[in-house]
Design goal:
Layout lengths: L5 E2 L3 H17 L6 E6 L3 H10 L5 E10 L5 E8 L9 E9 L3 H12 L4 E9 L9 E5 L3 E2 L5 H12 L12 H19 L1
Parallel strand pairs: 1-8, 2-3, 2-5, 5-6, 6-7
Antiparallel strand pairs: 3-4
Helix pairs in contact: 1-2
Length: 194
C-alpha cells in the first residue's frame, strides 16, 4: 500500500473539521438535546462536538463489526446499549467515519427503539458506498483513514493485510512513531507466547 491509499488527519485538522461541523449543525437549526458518541471511533469527536455545541449531555453506545476467518465483515452487534434515557429527545449521533454504514444504521434503529424524537448523524468522513449518508460530514473519501486516536490499531491491520512487517514508512506516519509501535507490537507478541 502506498501513501495515496491513506488519509491521515492530524489533531489540528480533526479539530478544524469539528469546528466546521459545529457551525453547520448550529446553522441547520437542529439543536440536539443529547450528543451520542458511537464507541470506539466516535468517542473523541463526540466529546469535542459536545464542547463546541456547549451541550454537556453526552451519551455513548457501542456497536462492533465482527470478521469471519476469511476476513469478511459480518453484521454489527450492539456491545453496549445507550448509556442514558433519550425518550422524546433530539439526538446527534457522532462517529468518526460512515464506512459501510451498517453500524450507524443499527445504532439509529436502537435509538428509535428508545423513543428518541429525532436523530441526526455527524461523521468526519463519509465513504461513497456507505448505506447511511450522514446529515453532517466534512469529507468524502475512498481512502483508508488513520485517525490520531487509532494509529496502533491501524498499523496492526496494515501489517496483517500485508502479511509482513513493512520496511518503510506506513501511510505517511512518521517513521519513528511507526518503528516504536511495531517494536511494541512485537514485544506484546513475545509476552503473549510465553
Amino acid at each position: 500500500m502506498t501513501k495515496s491509499h491513506f488519509e491521515v488527519p492530524t489533531w489540528n485538522q480533526v479539530y478544524r473539521m469539528l469546528l466546521n461541523q459545529a457551525e453547520k449543525i448550529c446553522n441547520s437549526s437542529f439543536k440536539p438535546d443529547v450528543v451520542v458518541g458511537v464507541s470506539r471511533g466516535g468517542l473523541v469527536p463526540a466529546r469535542i462536538l459536545s464542547d463546541l455545541l456547549e451541550n454537556s449531555n453526552l451519551a455513548t453506545v457501542r456497536a462492533e463489526s465482527r470478521q469471519t476467518d476469511r476476513g469478511d465483515r459480518i453484521n454489527p452487534v450492539l456491545i453496549q446499549a445507550l448509556s442514558m434515557p433519550v425518550a422524546g429527545k433530539k439526538l446527534l449521533v457522532v462517529d468518526d467515519v460512515a464506512d459501510t454504514g451498517r453500524s450507524l444504521c443499527m445504532v439509529k434503529k436502537h435509538l428509535l427503539q428508545h423513543e428518541a424524537e429525532a436523530t441526526r448523524v455527524a461523521t468526519l468522513y463519509y465513504k461513497p458506498w456507505s448505506t447511511v449518508k450522514p446529515d453532517y460530514y466534512e469529507k468524502e473519501t475512498e481512502r483508508w483513514i488513520i485517525f490520531p486516536w487509532d494509529v496502533k490499531e491501524n498499523i496492526r491491520r496494515i501489517v496483517e493485510k500485508q502479511g509482513e512487517t513493512p520496511r518503510n514508512e506506513i501511510a505517511g506516519l512518521p517513521n519513528h512513531l511507526t518503528r516504536r509501535l511495531l517494536k511494541q507490537m512485537r514485544e506484546e507478541t513475545k509476552c503473549g507466547s510465553t
